[in-house]
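Minutes, project huddle
Topic: does the predicted pose make sense with dioxo(di-mu-sulfide)dimolybdenum bound?
PN asked that the exact inputs be recorded in the minutes so nobody has to dig through chat later. Recorded below.
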Amino acid sequence: MRTTVINIKGMTCMGCVKSIKNILEMIPGVGDANVSLEDAQVKVQHDDAISSIALLVQTIMDAGFEVV
Ligand code: 9UX
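Predicted holo structure (tokens), as shared on screen:
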């Protein structure tokens, strides 16, 4: 497990926060996803042999957010 910080553009409410948390935590190899609306970022605990950073980023973009 490692922790990856991803900066996200486009989160405007706690609903966005919850949906990003939920979609990330559904990915195999992902532990806790801690999303901060205030900081516009997520800290994800994941096993990058199973869930790569690229997959995390793609999942966030597929949900309609921008990764910066
Ligand atoms: Mo809030 Mo976010 O109504 O995709 S859930 S804007």
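Observations noted during the meeting:
- The chain has a mean pLDDT of 98.
- The helical segments are 14-25, 53-62.
No decisions taken; revisit at the next huddle.
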